[in-house]
Write a structure and sequence with these properties.
459 residues; alpha/beta; Rossmann fold; seven-stranded parallel β-sheet; 17 helices; disordered N terminus; binds nicotinamide-adenine-dinucleotide
């Protein structure tokens, strides 16, 4: 009898373990309403997102940039020519069924906050005035030490963190009951908090809960929201770079409570460009001497980041991407000694319309030097809004599929993707996109696509 070839054994083993996993992830239907909980609901990203959804519901807004709404996905062999919309392949919650609730340090309703953010044209905002006016922020769990440049007064009075978490839990439960909500997702769109390192209080659920009771200085407001969300069975995604759900205690709690979590820091303007360009430079083995990135922006986010303690959190997040893409430790000659600098400058006249410059010093054949210049005149919140929508829709899918804990397949949307403790994060946007699409194929019971393609040419 002919012996099985090793690669066939491997692939049949792989198929078998995929089959077992498929049985594990049975997806329930997205019936009823999906409650969306947003800390920072009065910010530029949140209001641009919510106004866009309300405009869409009225037939006057296109959800450009959203994979869950506009993306297609290839199924089967290229010769089959099957590329359905993602939302036709997997059962996703409908945009019409989203219901919003949130908190902010400022008391403006969503209409006033959208006008203040100044991202969208006034006439467009007027079209959804009544819908936006109905969304009023709850009082925030806030600690000025974590964002000194904010001066809002819409803040809960309670001082004890554990009691504050319970206040949030009660509000979430009331929202769920009153609006007849079926499932919940929380997405942190609050300001970037100051830089924090993991400490012993973050280690276990017990140490964290003790820390809440004793108002530990290592527990930030965003961690209190994340704790409340997980306790209520709400999926949690972190759009900012600060330490939040990415601590062992909350990771463990998310597994115990069967809740998906993801983060962190929406990958929008300059970093998106970086993770598009860097994999290309590396794939052609062009060397790198330096990458200088600078930004000017004038929104509230820029004002918060003007404080060096808050900027440090953002800087860490922005700096990490190149190292993981170029892997200097295994590509010493090409990437062993590059200089990487990131700057953000608060410049009020520019508002939300950020301008980002990149100067990239590369070298090629025989060491000859070249330069690439990128000048991206972007709109921060316009780039972030579709990410917020996709994260809500896909985190809900994960929840319905019984996928708890860290959702690495959401890396596509983040500057600093959360991954398992033994893994390094994948920053290459093309690998991230493939990972996301293969996860969707897997959940839909379709074969993954590896782009080998030799089967088109050889028997
Ligand atoms: N493209 C982007 O816009 C982008 C990209 C990546 C990350 N982010 C991050 O997303 C977040 C939101 O960005 P933005 O431009 O909307 O900022 P923003 O300053 O306009 O909005 C943040 C809001 O959060 C509120 N807030 C702060 N702390 C809070 C708390 N403890 N509880 C409740 N509300 C709180 C603030 O009052 C503010 O209204 C920021 O952390 C930002 O760094 C944005």
């Amino acid at each position: 009898m002919e012996k099985e070839k090793p690669e066939e054994v491997n692939s049949s083993l792989k198929d078998r373990s995929l089959e077992t996993m498929k049985k594990k992830f049975k997806i329930s239907k997205p019936k009823g309403k999906l409650g969306v909980l947003i800390p920072g609901i009065g910010g530029a990203v949140s209001t641009t997102f919510i106004a866009g959804i309300e405009l869409y519901k009225k037939g006057n807004g296109k959800l450009f940039g959203s994979l869950s709404q506009m993306g297609t996905i290839r199924i089967g062999k290229r010769t089959e020519k099957k590329s359905p919309l993602i939302k036709d392949l997997v059962d996703l919650a409908k945009v019409e069924n989203l219901e919003f609730f949130g908190w902010d340090v400022y008391s403006d309703d969503c209409y006033k906050a959208t006008k203040k953010a100044g991202v969208l044209d006034g006439s467009l905002v007027e079209e959804v005035k009544s819908e936006l006016e109905m969304i009023k922020p709850g009082k925030a769990v806030f600690n000025k030490k974590f964002a000194e440049n904010l001066n809002g007064k819409n803040i809960k009075k309670e001082k004890n963190y554990f009691k504050l978490a319970n206040e949030l839990i009660n509000e979430i439960k009331t929202f769920k009951k009153e609006k007849n909500i079926d499932r919940l997702v929380m997405i942190w769109c609050g300001s970037t908090e100051i830089f924090l390192k993991k400490s012993s209080v973050h280690e276990t659920i017990k140490s964290f809960e003790d820390g809440l009771k004793k108002n530990s200085k290592f527990i930030s407001p965003s961690m209190i929201y994340a704790y409340a969300a997980i306790k209520c069975g709400a999926a949690y995604a972190n759009g900012a770079p600060n330490l939040s759900v990415d601590i062992p205690a909350l990771e463990k709690l998310s597994k115990n409570n069967k809740v998906p979590i993801a983060g962190k820091d929406f990958k929008t303007g300059q970093t998106l460009m970086k993770t598009i360009l860097a994999p290309g430079i590396k794939s052609r083995l062009l060397g790198l001497n330096g990458w200088f990135s600078t930004n000017i922006l004038g929104n509230r986010d820029g004002e918060v980041l003007d404080n060096p303690k808050n900027f440090k959190t953002k800087e860490e997040s922005k700096l990490s991407v190149l190292e993981h893409i170029f892997q200097p430790e295994i590509n010493k000659e090409l990437y062993g000694d590059y200089y990487h600098k990131v700057r953000i400058n608060y410049y009020p006249p520019r508002g939300d319309q950020k301008e980002a410059w990149d100067n990239i010093d590369i070298f090629g054949w025989l060491g000859y030097e070249m330069q690439i210049k990128v000048n991206f005149l972007c709109r921060d919140s316009i780039l972030a809004a579709p990410i917020v929508l996709d994260l809500i829709i896909f985190m809900d899918l994960a929840q319905r599929a019984g996928m708890d804990g860290i959702q690495e397949w959401m890396s596509f949307y983040f500057k600093s993707p959360m991954v398992g403790s033994k893994l390094y994060p994948e920053h290459d946007v093309f690998i991230q996109s493939m990972k996301l699409k293969n996860t969707l194929r897997f959940l839909a019971g379709e074969k993954n696509i590896d782009h080998l393609g030799l089967d088109y040419y050889y028997e």
